[in-house]
Amino acid sequence: MMALAVTGLEVPASALDALSATQAENGGWSFDGSTDPAMADSNTTSMVVQALVAIGNAGHEVMAPALEFLESTITDDGAAYAPGAEADSNSTALVLQAMLETGGDTAGLEAALGTFQTDSGAYFYRAADPAENLFSTVQAIPAAAGAVLPILPEGDATLVAIHGLQAA
Description:
The protein has a two-stranded antiparallel ribbon with strand order 1-2. It has helices at residues 2-7, 13-22, 42-54, 63-72, 89-102, 107-114, 134-144, 158-163, and strands at 74-75, 78-79, 124-126, 129-132. It is mainly alpha-helical. A hairpin with a 2-residue loop joins strand 3 and strand 4 (129-132).
């Protein structure tokens, strides 16, 4: 969906139907398309939320339950992959981006994301493993900078022309 938004192509109704059909009862989505609420995760759900906004469907019926699910993953330590799990930098970054995109409360998530950053500027994945992690760092940087998905090169007017969205 994000790719279609960036290119200006219309997202087929069947894609939105598929999202509705694969949303779990708890409002989340899972990376493998399972509708089992125990399989729903914050990372996939955050990306779906950002995709819906990117294609101009921020008011779609799946959004409210999705945002409630994301709220259920947030702790004082950040956001977790699933409710009740340990917070991690990747999930915190993606949930932060979804909240930035939808106007949600981001202060706690912004502060929590900073706790995953090392003295070198890199990020680590979880408190249990404070080693610098390239994937965590790459995923955290856009969120720390306040950028949401899709991220476009500066000056790219594609999303501005299509949906009035701003490039990072």
